Amino acid sequence: MKRIPPIQIEWKPDKNSVTPVYQQIVQFVCEKVAKGEWPIGTRLPSQRTLAALFEVNRSTVVTALEELTSYGIIEGCHGAGTQIISNTWALLLPPSPDWSNYVTSGFFRANNSIIQAINHLEFVPGMMRLGTGELDPRLFPEKMWKRVCESLSQNTTSLGYLEPLGLPELREAISHHMETFGIYAPPSCILITSGSLQALQLISVCLLKRGSTIYTEAPTYLKSLQVFQSAGMNLSGIPMDDKGIQFRNLQHSLKNETQQNSSILYTIPTNHNPTGITMSEARRKELMNFCTTNRLPIIEDGAYQELCYDANQPTPLKAMDETGMVIYLGSASKSLAPGLRIGWIIAAESIVQRLGDVKMQMDYGASSISQWAFAEFLSSGMYQHYLTNLKTELKHRRDHALSVLSRYYKDFAYWNLPNGGFYIWLTIKGNINMELLFENAVKNKILLNPGAVYDFKHNNSLRLSYAYTSCEEFEHAAITLAEIIREQLE
Amino acid sequence: MKRIPPIQIEWKPDKNSVTPVYQQIVQFVCEKVAKGEWPIGTRLPSQRTLAALFEVNRSTVVTALEELTSYGIIEGCHGAGTQIISNTWALLLPPSPDWSNYVTSGFFRANNSIIQAINHLEFVPGMMRLGTGELDPRLFPEKMWKRVCESLSQNTTSLGYLEPLGLPELREAISHHMETFGIYAPPSCILITSGSLQALQLISVCLLKRGSTIYTEAPTYLKSLQVFQSAGMNLSGIPMDDKGIQFRNLQHSLKNETQQNSSILYTIPTNHNPTGITMSEARRKELMNFCTTNRLPIIEDGAYQELCYDANQPTPLKAMDETGMVIYLGSASKSLAPGLRIGWIIAAESIVQRLGDVKMQMDYGASSISQWAFAEFLSSGMYQHYLTNLKTELKHRRDHALSVLSRYYKDFAYWNLPNGGFYIWLTIKGNINMELLFENAVKNKILLNPGAVYDFKHNNSLRLSYAYTSCEEFEHAAITLAEIIREQLE
Q1: pLDDT higher than threshold 90 for residue A210
Q2: Cβ contact, residue pair B153, A164, below 8 Å
């Protein structure tokens, strides 16, 4: 094989630039390739030579080459060094918006990599998912699903485009369903979304501005998402106590804001993700008063609203909303099946219309089959029946999980007692390296959701979920995990 | 009832500002309400008084009040004048990004209002949709659908989150399906999207930059969408002849571009929407050479690829693509059912991975039921069988439509002869007011898709579709329309 000599380079990065040096190297290579000066097959000098040429550490060169490799622009060939293998689209990648670039906090990147690892590891066979935000697939109501499919088979005669707000039958069914929680919303105030995540996406592009502040519980599920951060908004975490968000801490921040109009509050008042806390009735009333007085609109995420185990159902904020300041988000993902990709927004008609118009520009609406299927679950009464059984099962799993924790974790951890939902927020006393714990657990086929993913600062917490594993599986994994923690603490 | 006196106003709009006067009035009122200076129930002076106060025409006041009404901030009360009825969210609306604001061309707004009218009128009972981009719901394969539902009922035991690229079974089935068109793509190069519109959305946020130029056929379906324009990109229309896009016109523009990297070509080479033209094989090869030489990446929209009536199938550009410069978009919306919301992207693995990651941040993937359903259609062989029958039916409808046009339109219009897809592009000779034609047609319960919706300049064309109406319906509506046109021409 003929050995191609490496290309000659005379350029050097500018060390005084605000652009990181490795990034300058990436851009330099991309430009050379884009201009056609370095055709496919061009060989780059060795890493050592490049480091000398650029007058930088070899690790900087490695970082740059790794990024170029990930773009598909170069490839390391054994024996032949690094070569240009670009394609045209790959060249578009580097200058394109990297969503994580929009985020101001440096913490995000680390977070992001843990989430990516979790997303990947969830599909590894035999992995015990001890913190996952998903219902045990074995709890899926197969018999009811068969009945739904039969109905779909009989009643669906075509699958055309739907109107912007979504299937009227489904909005009607959701309207009735929400009445049981004290929320009275006509179908014209309900917009069907492709899951709650899309609802947040729509709110971020339609109602909020770059630079807006989203106040939210600390910790919060929202921190694990990138939807608001990617749109250039800031998350601000407000501490919680066992009655919910301590919103009084907000007073000072709101006064200091120049554009009061541009901030909102995002809250999961019921069966909070990740802490499992349910906001007290008194706190709900105070919060509504506070937000009304301060003109601070609220996004109420009701994903776990339907999973309260006790007869005493907490009142949704939307049910107390007299001025239209609450946007309520509902979802079938946590209570039934995420694969349906069905969520809904309840808000004033003008808001819902606006969001619906933009939804049409984004994906022409959610799947009609999914909408028909969930409408059938709801209107047949099957869903209510299913929920009753599901809550009994989850309550049983919670009781068992708490007893396991009491037996094996008491010495070195503390946790809260959830009244619904999926989660126990467990905090380890003393110093422990959480990254190492995550890795050690994975080695033992246990997948954890570290608290840092949800928080604004470092913590020693884990989001445990008893919704995905059977009692036996939970106990087995929890015992192993307790051993791992003990070993690390010693 | 106590009559509240109207509020006193001393402010005046700045007529030298670049902000339109009506917009200044809207902002002024919003600020007053936002600051709490004008509480709910505040009464505004009469339109005549406002016009005098602001020293503007009354029509300017009316425009401003209409906009404020649409935001839900004011309401006209008979006898009590106009009142502030704001809620907190409504106040967020005005300063929030209005997608249409991003568009540079003034043409867009008019266009937009026609499209909105069409979207609305499509749901009016008894309306004959003579230009709609949707398959006749009566052609939906009900029996096959029942078999698919049975299979779903048997084989779906849960509906969890799927991996970022989508259901592996579906990607496998699409991979096989695309082989019949000469496209060899492993499942790892296929990303499932919620329809093709979302594919364009993903490309616009991941791969392109604000200010990028999208070259495309003139006229083009893309003009009727807002996806690229909303993201701050420019559409540039390239004329067509009967062999497809006349790309040589591009040479000059490309040379003049400062950032060559940021332009792409979007094309529907097969059964083009809205003209029905299929690009010749020779033109395809020339185009591929041109784009490769000029490093101009291509988005190939294959929405109508499966609807070629003749045995001679045109080769997709993607099948000629040796350097990875073509991103192919497939869709089940035009050939089977838009309500499935299933589309797919075929591209290099690095591109597909990137788009898939962002898709996860937008909506966690497409509906699992839809994905299972389409996978079953494909892998059972039912889809192929269905397509054969569908094409026979569409060909029959096309022949009938052409004979109707020959009989009733020859004197005053000309049109092309499509070899597949849905559309006939009909152009009226002489001067005719197309807005008036649209209105007159609607009065006669005929819904038209005026060519202006798809074009970059005024035209006298209509996109006719024979896919939505039966032969009898088409003939009946076409005869009525011919009369309306004749009357207008006289």
Answers
A1: no
A2: no
Topology of the domain comprising B128-133+385-489: Aspartate Aminotransferase, domain 1 (3.90.1150)
pLDDT digits (tens, 9 = 90+) for A40-68: 778 888 888 899 999 999 989 988 888 88
Q: CA–CA separation, B335 vs B286, rounded Å? A: 28
Minimum CA–CA partner of B132 in chain A? A161
Residues of chain B with pLDDT under 70: 1-4, 35-36, 77-80, 86-113, 256-262
Residues of chain B with CATH 3.40.640.10: 142-380
Instruction: Please give the share of chain A, as a percent, with pLDDT higher than 90.
Output: 55
Closest Cα partner for B42 from B51, B33, B52? B33
Please identify among residues 188-207 of chain A the ones whose CB lies closer than 8 Å to any CB of chain B.
Answer: 194-195, 197-198, 201, 205-207
- Say if the Cβ atoms of B297 and A123 lie within 8 Å: no
Residue of A93, A158, A368 lying closest to B354 (CB–CB): A93
Test A361 with B92 for CB contact under 8 angstroms. Answer: no
C-beta atoms of A89 and B209 within 8 A: no
Residue A289 near chain B (CB below 8 Å): no
Give CATH 3.90.1150.10 domain extents, chain B.
Answer: 128-133+385-489
pLDDT tens for B196-221 read 989 998 888 777 777 788 999 999 99
With contacts defined as CB-CB under 8 Å, which chain B residues touch A349? 72
Fold classification of A21-106 (topology level): Arc Repressor Mutant, subunit A (1.10.10)
* pTM for the predicted model, two decimal places: 0.80
**Count of CB pairs separated by less than 8 Å, A with B:** 255
Q: By the CB < 8 Å criterion, does B11 face chain A? A: no
This model of the complex carries an ipTM of 0.78
Task: List, for residues A111-159, the tens digit of each pLDDT value.
Answer: 456 777 787 788 888 899 999 999 999 999 999 999 999 998 888 777 8
Q: For B364, which of A197, A297, A348 is closest by C-beta distance?
A: A197
* Mean pLDDT across A419-437: 95
Please write down the long-range contacts of B31-40, taking CB distance under 8 Å and 24 or more positions apart: B33/B73, B33/B84, B33/B86, B33/B91, B34/A260, B34/A261, B34/A295, B34/B91, B36/A295, B38/B7, B38/B84, B39/B84, B40/B84, B40/B85, B40/B86
Contact B337 A159 (CB under 8 A): yes
Q: Answer whether B134 sits within 8 Å of A161, measured CB to CB.
A: yes
- Asked whether B100 and B112 are in contact (CB, 8 A), the reply is yes
Lowest average pLDDT, out of A259-263, A372-376, A438-442, B58-62, goes to A259-263
| CATH code 1.10.10.10 region(s) in chain A | 21-106
What is the CATH number that goes with domain A142-380?
A: 3.40.640.10
Which of B69, B71, B100, B159 best tests the A interface by mutation, with the highest count of A CBs <10 A?
B159
Comparing C-alpha atoms, which of B321, B357, B330, B325 is closest to residue B202? B357
Nearest CB neighbour to B209, from listed A96, A149, A207: A96
Q: What is the pLDDT of residue A84?
A: 81
Selected for mutation to probe chain B from A33, A84, A87 (highest B CB count within 10 Å) is A87
CA distance A313 to B276: 58
Span A465-487, average pLDDT? 97
Instruction: Output the six-digit token pair for A432.
Output: 């422990």
| Phi and psi angles of residue A90, each rounded to the nearest 5 degrees, phi first | -55, -35
Q: Do B156 and A162 touch (CB under 8 A)?
A: no
CA dihedral A82, A86, A91, A94 (to 10 degrees): -30
Better-scored residue on pLDDT, B6 or A270: A270
Interface of B with A in 359-378 (CB under 8 A): 360-370, 373
Q: How far apart are CA B350 and CA A87, in angstroms?
A: 10
